[in-house]
Design a protein that fits this description.
mainly alpha, 9 helices, about 65% helix, Tet_transcr_reg_TetR-rel_C_sf, Homeodomain-like_sf, HTH_TetR
Length: about 200
């Protein structure tokens, strides 16, 4: 079947979106050049043009995922507090990421599995964590940011895999118990540095 050639400038992004869709549905092994080309509706030649190897394609797709997920994270942490306890932002992060983002959790689990085996994915995750911690440092001391980041990530994961109810009151109770009021500070880094 001959398809008209596309000259759209968003082809690379469309390929990456197809990669993430296929990984979410079939796991990393399901994202082959052929399946991605079909999913993105691009010729096979576009695959190797944009991504010389399948590993390049997977890594770029997970970088896109990290950017998208951090964008949501950073937006929540960037909103003005207006006297609000910053722990409420952590609650909002957990509840927001825990509800309606099941696909992203599946993709994150695939990324974690790759990171266990491949240092390039560990570097990607480390960079993602550093960005998240910079966002948290707007409201919490630097030494508390890694712990808060691990707390929110663990609670989001549990919200997706637990069979127990996981409501906002339960999340708030855990966050307030685990983040002491003494761990709260005003912004330690300029907002633009956290982006």
């Amino acid at each position: 079947m001959n398809r008209p050639r596309r000259t759209d400038p968003g082809r690379r992004e469309r390929i990456l979106d197809a990669v993430l869709d296929l990984i979410a549905r079939d796991g990393s092994a399901g994202a082959t050049y052929r399946s991605v080309a079909e999913g993105a509706d691009v010729p096979m030649g576009s695959m190797t043009y944009h991504f010389p190897t399948r590993d390049d394609m997977l890594l770029a797709a997970f970088e896109r995922l990290a950017d998208q997920m951090h964008g949501r994270f950073d937006q929540i942490m960037a909103e003005p507090l207006d006297g609000e306890d910053p722990r409420e932002r952590v609650v909002q992060l957990i509840v927001t990421q825990g509800a309606g983002y099941g696909r992203d959790m599946v993709l994150s689990a695939e990324l974690y599995a790759l990171a266990v085996r491949d240092e390039r994915y560990r570097v990607l995750i480390q960079s993602w964590m550093e960005r998240s911690r910079a966002s948290l440092r707007r409201h919490f001391p630097a030494e508390a940011a890694p712990v808060i980041d691990a707390l929110q990530e663990g609670l989001v994961l549990h919200s997706h895999i637990s069979t127990e109810p996981f409501d906002v009151d339960r999340v708030r109770s855990a966050v307030y118990r685990l983040i002491e009021p003494t761990a709260i500070s005003r912004a330690e880094v300029p907002a633009e540095e956290a982006r």
